[in-house]
Specification:
Oligomer: single chain
Number of strands: 11
Radius of gyration: 14 Å
Strand content: 25-35%
Number of helices: 3
Shape: globular
Distance between the termini: 42 Å
Number of domains: 1
CATH superfamily: Jelly Rolls
Helix content: 25-40%
CATH architecture: Sandwich
């Protein structure tokens, strides 16, 4: 499978969001994602490869600000169970402070072996509703895909 179109990528993500739709964003969901879609598993790596290919092709992470490549890949909708998909590529830097009114699910894909997002290596990280942070990548370059219920995000003024 080429996974080099937005349609194919949407189908790939729908396979994940379909399993978690309607679940509260909490530690239990984080454990479940790491168990069902482990960092060394086929589905996780399929998404990782698709992200790398799409960034190389130029349709993913096609905007840049402050050394961070980013972009909303899929708007929230029924196809992916009400989530939106954004992907960022960060190299040892800190992103803009923001809040997740409905929580956030992060899929962390290090490009450099030691790269971490918010102190976490390859795998899933779930933030509950109301959480706020400066998204930070340390130790090298990483791709982070994040799912937001209803696309909800508030950048701090």
């Amino acid at each position: 499978m080429g996974n080099n179109t937005v349609e194919e990528f949407t189908a790939l993500i729908a396979g994940i969001t379909g399993r978690i739709a309607g679940q509260p964003l909490d530690g239990q969901l984080e454990s479940r994602l790491n168990a069902e879609f482990p960092a060394d598993g086929a589905e996780f790596n399929c998404v990782f490869e698709a992200c790398k290919a799409a960034i190389a092709a130029g349709w993913m992470c096609n905007r840049e600000a402050g050394g961070i490549k980013f972009g909303r890949v899929i708007k929230p909708g029924e196809a992916i169970h009400g989530f939106s998909v954004d992907v960022v590529e960060m190299d040892d830097c800190k992103g803009p402070h923001h809040r997740h009114p409905k929580g956030e699910i992060d899929m962390i894909m290090p490009l450099d072996a030691g790269a971490k997002f918010d102190g976490r290596g390859k795998g899933w990280l779930v933030y509950p509703a109301g959480h706020a942070h400066f998204p930070t990548v340390t130790g090298g370059k990483a791709i982070v895909l994040y799912l937001l219920p209803d696309g909800a995000i508030e950048f701090t003024k």
